[in-house]
Every structure is written in C-alpha cells, then in structure tokens.
Amino acid sequence: MPPWHANPAHGRFANDPRLNDREKQLIDAWVRAGLPEGDPADLPPPVHFTDGWSIPEPDLVVSMPRLFTVPAEGVVEYQYVEVDPGFREPRWIQAAEIRPGNRRVVHHCLVFLKPPGCDEPAEQGALGSFCLAATTPGTPPLILPPGLAKLVPAGWRFLFVLHYSPIGTEQTDQTSIGLVFADPQTVKKEVATRLIRDDHLCIPPRVAEHRVEHSERFSDDVLLLAMLPHMHLRGKAFRYEAVHPDGSTEVLLDVPRYDFNWQNRYVLAEPKRLPAGTTLRCTAWYDNSAGNLFNPDPDATVRTGLQSWDEMFNGYYEVALADQDLSRSPLLRRKVWSWVVALLVVPVGVAFLVCSRRRRQKAI
C-alpha cells in the first residue's frame, strides 16, 4: 500500500489511500479467525493494474526529441530540454502525466512553459501559473475536475527540467508528457500552479530542527485544489496554513514526517474556498543533525540548490479564481454587443422609416 504522510487531523484528500477503522477491524477479525476463505461467488473481479497511462488515453504525447545518456556514476547536472508541442491556437489541458522513459534514473521532472522569443519560462494566466505538470516519486498525475483546466497559449513551448540519478550502469532516457485536452466551451475556470519558495536558505550545521516560514496573500477569492511540498534529504516536516482575514488560522495540510523518497501531491476532496485577504503560509522544518540518517554531511551549512545534498523550500499549490466563469464570458460579450447594436441601429432605423414616410407623403 503506498505510504501516506498527511496528518489525519487536518484536511480531507481525494487520493488518501488509508484504510478506515471499519476496514482495519474487518482485516483484524479475518486474521484472528485464521484467514478463512469466503464465498467464491462474492469474489470481486481481479484488480487491473495499468501498464500504460494513469490518465485517460492522451490526445497528444510530447516527448524529448532524442535519448539522453545517463552515465554510470558521478553528478549529472539538471537537464533542460525545450520541445515545441505545435500549438498554433490556445489549448486547454484537462489532464497531464509525465512518464519517465527510464524510472530507474529519473528522480523527478517538471514541465514549464516558455513564451515565443523568450529565453526563460514565464508565469501564465491571471494567477500566474508556475508550471504545467510535475512528477516526483509518489506523485499522482494531474487530473482536474470537469470545468477546470490549465491553459497553454498558442506558440508557447514546453521546457522539460529533469533530475537524473546514476545507478552504477550507463542508462538512457526519453521522457514524455501525455495531455488530455478540454473542450474550450466547457472550461469555466483556469487552474494555476503557484509556488512559495526560498532561494536563500541557510541551514546551520548540526541543527536538528531548523524552521523556515514564507507566505503569500490572495487579493481575490480563490479555490485551493491541491498542495505538494518539496524538500531534499534534510527535509523533516512541512505544513500549509490559511490565515483568514479575521486572524484565525486553519491547518490545510500537515506533513509531520516528510519523506524525500515519496513525495505526494495532496488533492483536496473538495476545493477549498479562501476569501480575498487570506494568507497562505508554508512552514518547513529541516534536520541537519547527525541523527538524520539521510544527512549527507551534518557539518555543512546547507543552502538552496538543485542537487539532493543542497536543500529546497518549495510549497507548490494549485488554485483557481473562485468566481471566474470563462464559459459565460463569450455569451456575455455577445449580449453586450447585441444591446449596443440594438441601441444604435434601432433608433436609426426608426428615424429612417419616419423620414421615408414623410417624403412619400409630400410626394403624394
């Protein structure tokens, strides 16, 4: 059973795999009874584990243009691979899944968006979406509820950012991303992946509990959809909190025992509305002591960096504007123009008819 690191005291999550109390009691009673076989007629159909995509069959698969060779040993710098998906018109993304070509060496991969003519990725949309999709050990694919989607503007390119880990023998990889498109007519809200981060970490040597906190304030009502904390080998715990406009604090996600080897994306069972003026606060704790068995060097002062022996403070989260309804916008615009046309054309038409009638009467 996959591990689950969220504190059950806070939040309800759609991808929570834990057994409930009734299920645990049922298994316990079955074991104590000697594992008796039940009625074969009640046997459910066998579980089908997919060998392919976890999302619905993709409408498009975009791959790295060529194989990348991962050496048997040493440090592999992050790889940045730019790919043109060929979008000549805006595309709405309902689901996205990054599939490493070789899971033994791909530790994690993110796909960012690059505008035409720019050297760097850019945030996109009204909320400034930070990336399209990500995969780390344990992360489920991006599958958004009906009516919600991510936007890839026309002409924008994909930037694959890959972290490879050598395993003792030379390997190759060609990672892909599968996309399921949404019908633009059905999209009501644009989803953004945002990031609260710290680019200037400084974790002292041999400290068992180094605390770091950062936050972001919402100027509009938003719907919070999911959260994904990311740290490295010294990461100990991570927490998301909402500080409401009235000053009250609510824990949205608490990960008291962070695991670098299994990093989950915690999808809320129901979108959480956070009113304008709410502050989203992320707090992380790091263990740089010798008591941390995964610590590469407890005598090091640890700073922000890309490699696993460096550290990160990354609080990813997905949001949408709570009151946005893109499906109504074209209709509203058409109605407005209809009213404008009516206000301008109808009086002119009436005046024309009146003048024509008067001219005919004079002619008679």
Helix content: 10-25%
Q: Looking at the structure, what is the overall shape?
A: globular
Runs in which pLDDT lies below 50 for 5 or more consecutive residues are: 331-364
Largest sheet: 9 strands, mixed
Radius of gyration: 27 Å
Number of domains: 3
Mean pLDDT: 89
Count of runs of 4 or more consecutive helical residues = 2
SSE ordering: HEEEEEEEEEEEEEEEEEEEEEH
CATH fold-level label of the largest domain: Jelly Rolls
**For the record, what CATH class of the largest domain applies?**
Mainly Beta
Multimeric state: single chain
Strand content: 35-45%
Structural class: mainly beta
Per CATH, the architecture of the largest domain is: Sandwich
- The count of DSSP E runs of length 2 or more, i.e. the number of strands, is 21
Outline of this structure?
The chain is mostly beta strands and 364 residues long. It folds into 3 domains: 1-38 and 190-327, Jelly Rolls, CATH 2.60.120.230; 52-187, Jelly Rolls; 335-364.
